[in-house]
Structure formats: structure tokens, C-alpha cells
Amino acid sequence: MSMSSDGSVDLHAFDFPDDTTSRAAKRVPLKLVAVFVLVSLVWIFASDQVVDAIFTDAAARTTAQSLKGIAYVVVTSAVLFLALRFYVIKLNAEHAALEDAWDETILGWALAMDARESQLASHSQRVADLTLRLAQHAGIPTTELRTIYRGALLHDVGKLGVPESVLSHPGRLDDAQWALIKQHPENAMRMLAPISFLHDALDIPHCHHEQWDGSGYPRGLSGDAIPYAARLFAVVDVYDAVTAFRPYHASRTHDEAMAIIRSESGTHFDPAIVTLFSEMMGLRETLAPVAHWR
Description:
The protein is mostly helical. The chain folds into two domains: 25-90; 117-286, Hypothetical protein af1432. 61% of the residues lie in helices and 0% in strands. It has helices at residues 23-26, 30-54, 58-116, 123-137, 142-153, 164-167, 175-181, 184-192, 203-207, 228-243, 254-263, 271-282. Helix 4 runs antiparallel to helix 5 (142-153). The protein starts with 22 loop residues before the first helix and ends in a 12-residue tail after the last helix.
């Protein structure tokens, strides 16, 4: 990753880790093959000698050889099952460790983004946690929560392509500065699209500034054309922005923030999600700690 003279990141040189799976998932399980071959050889040579030593009658020996073949299938199947079970458990553990490592990396990116704007301390973490709560309240399947959480953490990653002078501007932005800010969803798409494991998490970084009535950006999507995760996140993002201190406005109370969100239901926000968010925030004092995907 390289930094330009204006403090923005060169998007063409943005250096994300390669999208790779565990090496163990790609290599041939040679140990498994070796165990199978070893068991087969031992069985063939040892069992023939045992049969010859025990049975002298030709008919009995033939019957024993048939039973030996059946026993061979049963024993080798059991060995293969146990070996495969061990191998799958090992792969699952390595996959989980890899997923956790990616999550830690993504959190690091989010903290780096927030550090560029001092007034946004912990903003990405807060909105990611609250979006996760809202997704759970909305009944999103547990299997999709990790993707939503990642998208929420990375919602402003495209701002790495915006000059520092614009991000740290103390007052209202002029038209030119605002145009640069509005590029950050497309910046995010260019930065994250090459990373295949993040494809499902692109909805929030790319579409969280779309509005229900079609007046948002970057594509002017409206209604159900806006991805559901982005509609969830949009409410949370505004709530956090309103209740947190910013150089251009004082922080508002929870009630004031909720009044703003309800007033924009059907224009900025999906009305159904505003209702869900209102329900959830009404229960906020009794909510259990946020539960992730495990």
C-alpha cells in the first residue's frame, strides 16, 4: 500500500493479502494415503499366513479367504473413516483460524481508517456491533452474520482514497470536497472486489449511502433494489453519526437521534427497518452482549 502526497491511498497499489485458503486444504492428504497403503499391505501378507497356518482343508481355506476379503473391506473402511474424520477436523480448525485471522486484519483496517479522522474514534467498531445486533433482531441467519459484520467494519474503507485535507476539514465541505467524499463507495468497490472472500461483504461498503427514495449515491438505487444489509446499516450509521460528536455538530441525545431517523422513514430509510431499529433500541437496556457467529 502506498500513500500519495495528499494523504490518500493509491488505490491501484492497495496491498491486501492474497485470497488464499489454508495450505492444508490444497495439498494432497499424503498421510491418509500412506496409512491406507500400510494397512492394506499388512493385512494382505499377515492374513494369508494366518489363514494358511490355521486351515489345512482346502474348502475351509477358501471360505476363510472369502471371509477375510469381507473383513478387509470392513477394516479398511473403518480406518479410512477415522483418518478422514481426523483430517476434516484438522481442516475445519485451520479454516476457523484463518477466518479469525482475516477478522483481526479487517478490524485493523477499520481502526486505521478511524485513526485518519480523530473524531471517529471507534466509530467502525460501534456501528459494526450495532449492525450485528440489528441483523440478529431482524432474524438474519447466523451463517450470514460474519459477512454483515465484515461489511460494516469496512463501510468507509473507500475513504482511504480521499485526501487527508478533505477528511480532516473542520467545517462544512464545499462542492469539490463533497464530490471527493462521494467517491468513497466506488473506491471501496475497486479496493475490495479483487478479494474473493469479501465479495459477499461488498453490499455495505458499496451501497450504505443509497436512500430508500432513490436520492442517494453512488447509483441512485431505491427501495428493495438496495441490498438489505446496506439498508440495515444505513440506519445504524446515521444513529451513530448523530449521537457522536463531530466538528460540524454537537452530539445529540438518543431521543433526538430516534426522532431524526423516524422523520426520514420512507425517504432516507426503509420503513420496515426503522420499525425494527426502534423496537431494538427500545429494548436496549435489556439486550444481552452482542453475539457473533459462533
